[in-house]
Amino acid sequence: MPSYGHAPRRVAKQKQNTFFGGAAVLAAGILIVKLIGMFYKIPLVWVIGDQGSADFYNAYNIYAVLLTISTAGLPVAVSKLVSEASATGRHNQVRRVFRLSLALFLVLGVLSFTVMFFRADWLAGLMHDTKAAPGIRALAPAVICVGCLSAFRGYSQGHSNMTPTAVSQIIEALCKLVVGLGLAYWLIKGGQDESVAAAGAITGVTVGTIVALAYMVLAFFSGRGNEPLSRDVPDAPRSILTDILRIAIPITISSSMVGIVTVIDSSLVQGQLQRVLLENQDSWKLYTDFVDFSTLKEAFTAWTASLPSGGVVTLSALSQQVQEELAAGTAQSAAQTLYTTLEDVSRSLYGNYSGALNIYNLPTSLMAAITSAVIPAVSATLARRDRRGTARITGSALRITALLAFPMGVGLFVLGEPIMQLLFAGKLEVGLAGPLLSTLGLATVFVCMMLVCNSILQAHGFVNLPVFIMVIGGAVKIFANYNVVALPGVGIYGAPLGNILCFGLCLILDLVVISRVIPGRPRYLPIFLKPLAASALMGGSAWAVYGLLSRLLRKTVETEGVVTYVLSWKGNAIASMAAIVVAIGVYGVLVVALRCLSRDDLALMPKGDKIARLLHLD
After folding, report:
1. What is the DSSP letter of 177?
2. Angstrom distance (rounded) from CA 518 to CA 530
3. Quick one: pLDDT at residue 159?
4. For residue 50, how many other CB atoms are within 10 A of its CB?
5. Which residues contact 547 (CB under 8 A, 6 or more apart)?
6. What is the SS3 assignment for 387?
């Protein structure tokens, strides 16, 4: 079992932990976690459908906000303070920082649990999805457990020991897969509603956090015997708490902005979809290939017929009538039927968007390997006054992120619809979800780069700047989506636009700030130009290969004298996988040919010198 212990007396004889050595451990762990997550989320859509997916993500988005508020900044603050204290040999300070942070996590976790569990119906109503309430309650206990998990993870990462974090994440993902997916399947087979099955799937998340926490506690105590002796006098608890909060609060606000904006945006998008569907039937034309509007039309006709002369047909009027009827205990009425039907249509539409978000979130989540390691790594070099090392880590973090983010974003943009057909054919509407994923692919590049830029700024002590930048970007996202989704000719297809505008603006502002406030900032053109060129060529090759093979593999179908060309699931799978394999090969060759990696980048990685010699890098 991995331990948290350290042996400073042998530090000079041991190979020093490097930034990308720690990142490699986390990257490997996160890769495994995401593979497990893929086997969880993709089959989950098949089990609970598009409406159940909407319920799942509406509940999970609420959880993510409260989780981020209670845990986001504290583990970063712990890892930063632990890294600085450990680098200077203050091990008693390290222990006191950990104990105080654990107490803070528990307090915040209990408060978040109280809100989620006892106000679940109110939170679900805010999301315009009343059926998300059971899932919100099922997730409530996880907030407390994840808070404690974050304390242990921050402590270990502050010592550049990424293994316990990686292993605990894998344990968490496995429990989520086995318990969550199994419970959802069992509930559906038992005849339960999709919303109940979504809550069952979410229960796996809670179980996973409990088991992962147990592992981290055991790993922590198993390493206690290796803790070094130290005579340093730790700072007063009040001083340490002040330092923790000084670092944690701005980072928490910055980190939670993404979750808060997501919740607000999800609520507004679903609310606007319902409003436009009710108030402007021209918007139905967008979805006639995906939605059967007969039930909605009947409910709409029945409700309008029940209205008094001159009654207003608006969503606010419908909502107010439903609330009054529920408060009065009125039996199922035309208004309640219409409201439920309208909610079901928006759940279906948003469920397809959630399916696209599933795939979109995979590349961005992989950035956690770099963002979680860059802050303690930069903090340690700054504590040693090693400016050259700091500049090298900063430049390499940006370069490696660009090399990962650009091809992933371009790949999603080019192969959005084929990917959705490959993964969700028959369960999601590919013609709806595919274009959404392609548009989200463009946002992938911006959000990945922005996350690393935020970590770089925070590591250099500029913890407030990312907060203001995220506030600006979030406001732009909310404004754009609120107005664009309301357009009858755009609808749900406009939802990804806010992501592009938000994270694109945040990235630009981050890069401007880095160039102004950080000494020895890297040159942006060499960092971005080569990955962009390689990714563009890669995307072109993927598009060409898929287009050629899809034409060769499609079949002709004649219906009532009309001949159409159809690409089967198998044909799409062959064309998609061939395009992806060719794209990977082309990109790998271009990265080497264009010398996108430098010897300094590789020197920070395990066996980097040997790789540099193999690639003949100067």
Report:
1. I
2. 23
3. 65
4. 24
5. none
6. helix
Q: Is 425 helix (H, G, I), strand (E, B) or coil?
A: strand
Average pLDDT over residues 573-586: 94
Beta bridge partners of 425: 428
pLDDT of residue 15: 39
The pLDDT-based confidence of 101 (bands split at 50, 70, 90) is confident
The token pair that represents 376 in the structure block: 């303690």
503 near 375, Cβ under 8 Å? no
Residues with Cβ < 8 Å from 232, sequence gap 6 or more?
A: 89, 90, 91, 92, 93
Average pLDDT over residues 478-493: 91
Whole-angstrom distance, CA of residue 209 vs CA of residue 19: 27
How buried is residue 560: exposed, middle or buried, by Cβ count under 10 Å (0-12/13-18/19+)? exposed
Range with the poorest average pLDDT among 167-176, 471-480, 502-511, 601-610:
601-610
Q: How far is CA 507 from the centre of its chain?
A: 17
Count of alpha carbons within 13 Å of 511, Cβ hemisphere only?
A: 17
Task: Give the position of tokens 């664009």.
Answer: 484
Q: pLDDT class for 616, splitting at 50, 70, 90?
A: low
More confident residue, 529 or 601: 529
Burial of 137 (0-12, 13-18, 19+ CB in 10 A): buried
Q: What is the pLDDT of residues 48-85, one digit of tens each?
A: 888 888 888 888 888 877 767 666 667 677 777 777 77
**Secondary structure letter of residue 14 according to DSSP:** S
Q: Note the helical H segments in 280-314.
A: 294-306
| Angstrom distance (rounded) from CA 573 to CA 219 | 43
CA distances from 396 to 390, 480, 532, 555, 600 (A): 10, 34, 16, 48, 8
